[in-house]
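BUG: 3D viewer hangs when loading the predicted structure for this chain

Environment: internal workstation, default settings.
Expected: structure renders.
Actual: progress bar stalls at 90%.

Input used:
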Amino acid sequence: MKLKKIIKNYSEGIGFILCVSIMALAILQVFGIWTKAVNVFEPLLGLLILLQALENWDTKRKSAIFCLIAAAVIFIVTIVIWIF
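Structure tokens produced before the viewer hung:
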């Protein structure tokens, strides 16, 4: 039980860091400061969705499976963008 609480706290902290960095990179992209920021925040968005899937796995299984599919699509699109 204590381990689950520790993991939940770490996942919340990691999620917060991911959210802040995604917002900062999106602002840089929108204002044209860094035009390639989308190449960085897109995989971070996939990680955030993957983290949400892991958090929801025990309570909301259908939502977690949908999040896993969404994260997989984001990672596939990211790989395609990097290759081409």
